[in-house]
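[job 4471] stage=fold_predict status=RUNNING
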Amino acid sequence: LENEHGDRMLWFGSWLIGSEGREAGWFYSGRGGERTGFPVPSAATGLRIRRWPNEGLEPEYVDVVGIAGLLDLCPAELDFDARQRFSLMRQDVA
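[job 4471] inference complete, writing structure tokens
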């Protein structure tokens, strides 16, 4: 995917642990456009994928939980517009 400047989008992936979605170590940082594999830590309960459509602003992110048995993930197909399970933003904020 391209960012708003026409360059390849910047991506960052990190592991989530515990039922509160605490962020642990990271496993990917780069411009995407590749297919690779990562060993899942035994404590991981999910993962967080960040992307920067505009590198001058904060990234968008999506949390993927319940990763047991997950064999393939295509970040371009994730819903970055949906409210995330571990969001720190209040729901009543317009």
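[job 4471] summary: The longest strand covers residues 22-30.
[job 4471] exit 0
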